[in-house]
Design brief:
Number of strands of chain A: 17
Low-confidence stretches of chain A: 195-210
Oligomer: heterodimer
Strand content of chain A: 25-35%
Low-confidence stretches of chain B: 1-5, 190-195
Strand order of the largest sheet of chain A: 2-11-10-6-7
Radius of gyration of chain A: 30 Å
Largest interface: A-B, 54 and 60 residues
Mean pLDDT of chain A: 82
Structural class of chain B: alpha+beta
Helix content of chain B: 40-55%
Order of helices and strands of chain A: HEEHHEEEEEEEEEEEHEEHEEH
Number of helices of chain B: 24
Distance between the termini of chain A: 40 Å
């Protein structure tokens, strides 16, 4: 009951508010409480105080008061270390699932005071520590794991500091509308689908000998018709014939070509998009909900990857 | 959130410096083996940090801890008490440093260092120690900031630590003055909590003489009005009645019901004594005291005593009468006691006293005969008397004839008693040196003295100082003047300096020493002696009425809040930089003046357009308007900045009236 109330209070107090644009940390955004070490220090001071009283140590009083007031004043120093910072979320570059998404934040320190040892972390132990010199801006990258394709939002981040003595913990919640597009994880290297003209038939067809470009080692999943049986007969190991589609011919990377599960299909298609782009082919992408006509350009590649990332997901 | 698994080498060096600083003041009183062990442990830690080697295994450290505890037990026979406790803390600090692995350990180390700093004050609370404390605190804070800031360079860390300390000082001042003081102790103190040096309540040959070599301050006295003559300054301490042939001890306490009585009082004098703690119950006053400002009683033999030992510096004002008749009607039992001597010892002295008794008509005459005897015969006043045999008095009177004040007081009282005159030994201090810079007298341990009191019918107890008969200079100028030169050379400088005839130290050095003592006096009075009574006196003098602890706490909080608020303002000002430039600020002021008369500048309107429009409305103001506009445009959009032009604009705007 009490726990539920407290939870409710906390969620009201720290209610999420998604920000866009520049956020300035003012006193309403900064929370501050003593740390465990701070409470420990109070005990040390109390023991010292008892000693002072018992032994009438005047200089002991002075020492205890100096330490006590220093501890008290560090609350202000801790607060000041993050107050009036301007924070703006930057563009997060798209990554493939399984990589780390680099969320970018721009911190601007408008004051004449350098800020030390600020830490930005998500709730799951991903943390970055940085300083901001006086009247300067810094760009902070917070790497967060991108597990799934689709949009990855930075969720609620916490900016905190315990500078200068670690007796107080000042923090502020940051929830920007920044998000990072996560492409499907590319599948293991795959041969590209065959001849563009016969695409859609669901078969891999070996094109003419003139298109033969070489042999490479067999990788699990290679289509049987492409295995170089002759090479195997010559005891050269299991090899796969590679063909170059001719320039000017369009290659269709088709969802329907692949007989595996949705996610695996997307992974293979991602691999194909990357390979086709790397080979400089003109390729089109056909997905259940979208069809991108064949083209060869960086923009096209990004569009294809984006379509793959968001296939079946809200845009 | 995650702490560094290995600590920065520089942080370890910082911690090492802190531990060295907190241990250094203890070095002089710790046993040699503790000092050596600490140096070895700290050196070892420094080497490990320097060579980046792993810390020693835990079992080894535990073995060293066990060894240290054993060593302390052998050395001090206990683990508790001041000496043993401090030794243990210091060894533990050095050992803990060999175990500091994480940031958490380092934090504990810093807390530990703060705590050990307090133990330093058991031994010394001098000004020098206070300065050293501030330096140590600065080192600790710098290391502490390092711990929390990772890679920050030394200079900014030092600066932050300095700012923290500077801000703490005014707040500490408020707390120090207003924090409601509680008189300690809260629990029983170990016996060795206070060093005691000074007079004992026993006297045997050599017991006063060993104090002569100490220039430690016993107490300081400030007189209201004219100070008395030096030969009147007898600071009465323990009165000794019983003699066993070697040692004098106080009389029985069963005489507590007898009230001391004084009459024929004259020559009143008022003064304030600041007594150093001596761990004994008696307070020193000029003979004879009639009033004292602290709760204390007077025994039948005119000793002023408190109920509890003086364990902290005590300040009291007292009123004495230099002329008096003390107990003219003395209790017969007391007189009987003042006549008791061990009859089987010192036969020659008893025989001499018997002769005096036979040849003299009165007690007073016997007394004078004895004094004449001391001054006539070849007695020497010396710090290094030869050893005496079983019959000490006989050996001294008829053999060595070299002695310090306790020899003279003791043999004089013995002779008096043997001749049937009631007499007793009084110990205390005699004289004092004047400090020109602080206008008070310093009474040092070297001023310790012993004299005699003789009871004469009709005159009561009369003070007789046999030492004065042998070495009058002792009473008039102080001990150093009375001693032969070979002896006085052994005395500390400040003891020698008292006697005007004997100054052989440069005068600037003496002046410096006096200045320092004056400073120390103020320090002792205002900082170290700031106890509940003094706090009360100070606050009432500052105009606080009805001093209760609530009121003090309230004022304290108010003062703290005020200062903290001031610091907040100053500190937060650094966060934002005024962006609007001054020219714009002035121009906006000009626009406000116009808008108050209904001429409002549109958001689309530039300064030039606006100027044209208002000149049409108010043609009489055209020169002022064009002047201000031109200046503003030049300042804000021109390339040059010029303070003169800014001032001209400010004046023009200020002079602008509608």
């Amino acid at each position: 009951m009490l726990a539920a109330l407290r939870q409710q209070f906390r969620s009201w107090l720290f209610r999420p508010k998604i920000e866009s644009g520049t956020v300035t940390l003012n006193q309403r955004r900064i929370f501050i409480i003593p740390t465990r070490q701070g409470i420990g220090f109070v005990f040390v001071l109390l023991v010292m105080m008892l000693g002072d009283i018992n032994y009438s140590l005047s200089l002991g009083y002075v020492l205890t008061f100096l330490l006590g007031t220093t501890a008290l004043m560090t609350m202000l120093h801790t607060f000041r270390n993050m107050a009036q910072l301007d924070i703006r979320a930057g563009r997060a570059e798209s990554v493939f699932a399984g990589d780390m998404a680099q969320f970018v934040f721009h911190f601007h320190n408008n004051g004449r005071l350098p800020r030390y040892h600020l830490k930005l972390h998500d709730g799951n132990g991903h943390c970055v520590t940085f300083d901001i010199p006086a009247q300067q801006s810094v760009e902070i990258k917070l790497p967060l794991p991108a597990a799934q394709r689709g949009w990855l939002s930075s969720s609620r981040l916490t900016l905190f500091t315990e500078f200068p003595l670690g007796l107080y913990h000042a923090w502020s919640y940051l929830q920007f509308d920044t998000r990072c597009l996560v492409y499907p994880k590319p599948a293991a290297p795959q041969p590209l689908p065959a001849s563009p003209e016969q695409s859609g038939t669901g078969k891999f067809i070996v094109s003419g000998d003139e298109d033969f470009s070489g042999l490479r080692s067999y990788v699990a999943g290679d289509a049987l018709p492409r295995i170089a049986w002759k090479a195997l007969a010559r005891e050269q190991g299991l090899q796969v014939k590679q063909f170059n589609a001719q320039q000017g011919q369009a290659l269709w990377l088709d969802w329907a070509l692949l007989p595996v599960t949705i996610e695996h299909k997307l992974e293979i298609l991602t691999r194909w998009v990357l390979d086709a782009d790397a080979l400089g082919l003109r390729y089109g992408l056909r997905l259940p909900d979208i069809e991108l006509p064949p083209e060869q350009s960086t923009t096209h590649r990004v569009e294809c990857l984006r379509a793959l990332a968001l296939c079946g997901l809200p845009k | 959130m995650k702490l560094d698994s290995t600590l920065n080498t520089h942080l370890v060096y910082g911690l090492l410096i802190c531990v060295v600083l907190i241990c250094a003041p203890h070095a002089e009183h710790l046993p040699l083996w503790v000092n050596s062990l600490s140096v070895v442990l700290l050196g070892w830690r420094a080497y490990l940090a320097y060579s980046d080697k792993p810390l020693p295994p835990r079992w080894l450290l535990l073995a060293i801890v066990a060894g240290s505890v054993g060593g302390i037990l052998i050395n001090f026979h206990t683990l508790f008490g001041r000496e043993a406790g401090v030794t243990l803390l210091i060894l533990l600090a050095a050992l803990k440093l060999l175990e500091v692995r994480s940031a958490r350990d380092a934090t504990i180390m810093i807390y530990f260092a703060c705590f050990i700093m307090i133990t330093t004050f058991f031994y010394s609370q001098s000004i020098l120690m206070a300065l050293f404390m501030v330096a140590t605190l600065l080192a600790i804070l710098t290391t502490w900031v390092h711990l929390q800031s990772g890679t920050l360079a030394l200079r900014p860390r030092f600066r932050i630590a300095g700012i923290l300390l500077l801000q703490a000082i005014p707040l500490t001042l408020v707390l120090f003055v207003l924090f409601p003081r509680i008189q300690g102790p809260l629990w029983g103190l170990p016996q060795d909590a206070y060093a005691s040096s000074g007079l004992d309540d026993k006297m045997s040959p050599g017991s006063v003489g060993h104090l002569a070599l100490s220039d430690a301050v016993a107490f300081r006295v400030a007189f209201d009005g004219q100070p008395p003559q030096r030969d009147q300054m007898y600071w009465r301490g323990p009165v000794l009645l019983n003699f066993d042939g070697h040692t004098w001890t106080p009389g029985q306490r069963d005489a507590a019901h007898i009230k001391p009585k004084m009459d024929n009082l004259e020559y009143p004098i008022d003064y304030t004594v600041t007594l150093e703690p001596h761990n004994k119950t008696w307070l020193f006053t000029l003979e004879m005291p009639t009033h004292i400002s602290v709760p204390a009683g007077m025994t039948y033999d005119f000793q002023v005593q408190q109920n509890s030992p003086v364990t902290s510096r005590l300040r009291y004002t007292a009123h004495s009468q230099l002329g008096y008749r003390a107990n003219t009607e003395e209790d017969t039992r007391q007189l009987q006691r003042a006549l008791t001597i061990p009859r089987d010892l010192n036969p020659r002295a008893q025989q001499l006293a018997g002769e005096w008794r036979a040849n003299s008509g009165s007690d007073a005459a016997i007394m004078n005969t004895a004094l004449a005897y001391f001054s006539r015969e070849d007695f020497y006043y010396t710090l290094s008397p030869p050893p005496l045999g079983t019959n000490e008095i006989d050996d001294f009177l008829f053999g060595t004839r070299k002695g310090f004040c306790e020899h003279y007081a003791s043999s004089f009282v013995f002779l008096m008693r043997a001749a049937g005159v009631p007499a007793r030994v009084v110990t205390g201090y005699q004289g004092g040196e004047y400090n020109n810079y602080g206008h008070y007298y310093i009474v040092r341990q070297s001023d310790a003295h012993a004299w005699a009191e003789v009871w004469l019918r009709g005159r009561g107890w009369v003070r007789i100082d046999p030492t004065a008969a042998i070495a009058p200079a002792r009473v008039e100028f102080g001990m150093a003047a009375a001693l032969p030169e070979s002896d006085s050379a052994a005395l500390p400088l400040m003891v020698r300096a008292q006697s005007p005839g004997l100054i052989n130290a440069p005068s600037w050095l003496i002046n410096l020493r006096f200045n320092l003592d004056a400073l120390n006096f103020r320090w002792n009075q205002w900082v170290l002696g700031y106890n509940p009574e003094r706090q009360f006196a100070f606050l009432s003098r500052m105009g606080m009425e009805e001093i209760t602890w609530q009121r003090m706490a309230f004022t304290m909080m108010g003062g703290m809040a005020l200062l903290a608020g001031l610091f907040t303002l100053l500190m937060l000002r650094q966060l934002t930089v005024r962006n609007t430039d001054e020219a714009q600020h002035l121009y906006l002021k000009f626009c406000r003046k116009l808008s108050s008369k209904g001429i409002v500048r549109g958001t689309h309107e530039g300064p030039q357009d606006f100027a044209i429009r208002i000149t049409q409305i108010k043609p009489q103001l055209a020169p002022a308007i064009s002047d201000i506009t031109a200046r503003y445009v030049a300042l804000r959009y021109g390339n040059q900045f010029d303070t003169g032009a800014m001032q001209a604009l400010r004046r023009a705007v200020a002079a602008f009236k509608l």
